[in-house]
Amino acid sequence: MPSPQELLHKIYGYKDFRLHQADIIQEILNGQNALVLMPTGGGKSLCFQIPALLLDGTAIVVSPLIALMKDQVDSLTQLDISAAFINSSLSSQEIYRIQNQVIQGKIKLLYVAPERLMMPDFLEFLTKIKISLFAIDEAHCVSQWGHDFRPEYLKLSELSETFPNTPRIALTATADEVTRKEIRTKLKLLDSKMFIDGFDRENIEYSIVLKENTKSQLLSFLKQQNPSSAGIIYCLSRNKVEQISEFLNYKDFTSLPYHAGLSPEIRNQNQQRFLQEEGIIMVATIAFGMGINKPDVRFVAHLDLPKSMEAYYQETGRAGRDGLPAKAWMVYGLGDLILHKKMIENSGLSSLQKQVETRKLNSLLGFCETTECRRSVLLNYFGETYPKKCNNCDSCLFPTELWDGTREAQMALSCVYRTKQIFGANYLTNILRGILDQRIQRFEHHLLPTFGVGSVHNQITWTSIFRQLVASDYLTVDIEGHGSLCLTGKSAAVLKGEQKIYFRKDLISKDVLVKTKSTTRKENYNLDEESNKIFQALKLTRMKIAKSQQVPPYVIFHDKTLIELASKRPKTLGAMLEISGIGESKLNKYGLEFLASINQTQ
Asked: Whole-angstrom Cα distance, residue 74 to residue 57?
């Protein structure tokens, strides 16, 4: 029997395991359970795929999305690994055929959704076969305090009772300490080892800018990216998704919408185009992306604030899964903050759950407002220490200035108090700036001592002040009062002069873009001119093969593999085996074509 290391090189084309992969694999081979926390793109799948190949029987992989199942199976098929999925996209005849193949021992990995897995008739089917292991992907879905709770995951605890001698491995990329404890409890993994490979995605550049004119800002950002780059843009509402997608198409980008309001056929069609074509920008709600394995997404942009640090980490983690440079860019403003607080209050959740959601939102707000290294703050949330500057986030690249805003904070809080805490930020800003409109005149607020005291600052500055006061809990949003601002228990110390307040000086989008103009729009990945020419030729060869097989190009080879081929320019098939990502199966299938492409281009 080959060793895990031999399989890694022979089948997958990699020489070495990453961090804890080898230990995790050995734990499963020893018949033990495991909980695995590994960043997106960190190689979670290998941790159960290699044991599945070495153990007798079929591995049952619990996966929450149809798209993920198909993607994984397509990738495994390219490696000549027998894999299949059973889900609602298949006919009853197809399901019957696959189940027969499993019974005959012809399938090594079978992907199923948690709902189907726990159906009585499917559980009965499982008792008829030899199961090598259970792999529970996206395990954070079991946590009621997590960011993506799915009730059907709770039933998976029954696997420990029905199949007590079958090893189980639970995997996730996003789980804080509370969520980890709940995963272990709910899935009955309390005695199993927990492997944490770290949450850092060092290739992603994090950047958050003040929301001004969203469309204009987005356009400026996209013009800095390579035209052939794939990207995802997240919006909170379906309507905004449609508007932004139409706007980008009008501006000559290739954009597709994705949200739950579209028919399944259109969603599937758009998703397949995103996976199989280059240069597609998907504009989507959070309904899109979970489990998408496309490795060459070069940017993820948020036009609205996500609901938690976990959601932000998971969504931005869809960029740069191949380890090549990628960007996570977000515009954020006071309106986002108010909207999310309203959504929590009106959610119908229990008071305890609302407290949890508010805590998670506040952590994200702290991340948005920080003047420290963003990577350090993000990793600290997941219990990981990052003791240095990353030099790959806006806080490190363009250090934020702080200014003493104690006097301005007193003005703002006093204005809230004197107007009886029933008005929003825009109205309060007009009072502070001394703008006499009909509404202010009608309420006689021009007679207040705070009228005009802040005229030295413009609208943008005051909006920033109110946003930061809310984010720091010196003001709160009255949900019943249509977003009116109210004082909190922390306000008094500021009004009495007992508490100093420092505000961050917001970076304006155009300032950031000027500083980042050195970022090349060329897709050369530090290749010289001749190597880049070969790289482009290899991409064309890959696209031709992918189209003929109707699979995404990255299923053939990742960009990283093509870059190494272009750089090292192997002369023989044997030399190609030294390229990362080329195993024996893919070498036999595609080696000659890619060698010819290299030779013809030189």
From this structure: 20
User: What's the Cα-to-Cα distance from 116 to each of 11, 104, 119, 183, 495, rounded to whole Å?
Assistant: 30, 21, 5, 20, 59
Handedness of CA 92, 94, 97, 102 (dihedral sign): negative
Q: Say how far residue 389 (Cα) sits from the centre of its chain.
A: 22
Q: What is the DSSP string of 507-540?
A: PPHHHHHHHTTTS--S--TT--HHHHHHHHHHHH
Cβ contact 419:448 at 8 Å: yes
Could you give the CA distance from residue 504 to residue 502 in angstroms, rounded to a whole number? 7
Burial (CB count within 10 angstroms: exposed 0-12, middle 13-18, buried 19+), residue 212: middle
Question: What token pair was written down for 46?
Answer: 């290998």
The pLDDT assigned to 518 comes to 42
In residues, how long is the chain? Answer: 602
Q: How far apart are CA 37 and CA 385, in angstroms?
A: 16
H or E stretch covering 588 = helix 584-601
Q: How far apart are CA 55 and CA 132, in angstroms?
A: 6
Distance separating alpha carbons of residues 544 and 549, to the nearest angstrom: 9
Closest listed residue to residue 327, CA positions, set 512, 471, 542: 512
Task: Find all residues with CB under 8 Å of 296, minimum gap 6, and list them.
Answer: 230, 321, 322, 324, 554, 558, 559
Distances (CA, A) of 397 to 34, 199, 206, 312, 507: 39, 21, 10, 21, 12
Its pTM surpasses 0.85: yes
Cβ(359)–Cβ(176) under 8 Å? no
Q: With bands split at pLDDT 50, 70 and 90, how would you rate the model's confidence at 517? A: very low
Q: Which residues face 194 on adjacent strands?
A: 35
Which of left, alpha, beta for 297 (phi over 0: left; psi -120 to 50: alpha)? beta
Q: In terms of Cα–Cα distance, which of 228, 197, 229, 233 is closest to 41?
A: 197
pLDDT tens for each residue of 176-202: 888 899 999 999 999 999 999 888 999
Residue that has been written with the tokens 């986030």 in this structure: 393
Cβ atoms of 193 and 222 closer than 8 Å: no
CB 47 within 8 A of CB 81: no
- CA–CA separation, 521 and 27 (whole Å): 45
Check residues 352 and 258 and name the one with the higher pLDDT: 258
- Separation of alpha carbons 383 and 510, rounded Å: 34
Helix (H, G, I), strand (E, B) or coil at 294: coil
